Predict the structure.
Amino acid sequence: MPFPKDIVITALELQTLNAILQIIGVIGSITYIVGFLLLQSGRICGNGLFYPLSKFFAACCVLASLTTAFNFASFLIQISFMAIALYGVWLRVTGRITARLDRSAAAQTSDTLHSAPHIKPATADARSPALAMLQTSPGDLRGHQGDPDSSDGPHREMIRVSRQ
């Protein structure tokens, strides 16, 4: 029994469809990379809606491209990204993550306020340790090899305080 003519796809149409799906996959890959770059450079916040939505969009694009050259491991990664992104969007839309972040920020502020009287500024400027750190020059850190105690600069005391 021959196939009806409207169902049969010619080789040229199949190549065109494969090319389009590959381009969609590349767009998804670029979306992954640009989203991560924007997050790392501080241009976007990972707690907003844009980041999980961009991951969901990227995963959908890459998943579409897998229809031409299926890879089970990549399929699992894309499905996982989609599920986690939707979970993140749900948390943000329902307000659950905002409350959690607000509680976390309040706890950190409370801890800082309780420990503030014990902090001694690293320099003669007693207004605030953070301000004193900002007022130091980059040259004060010369010779700093990654070990905070190896530096005799004004940041030595600040680093010890932050470890407590």
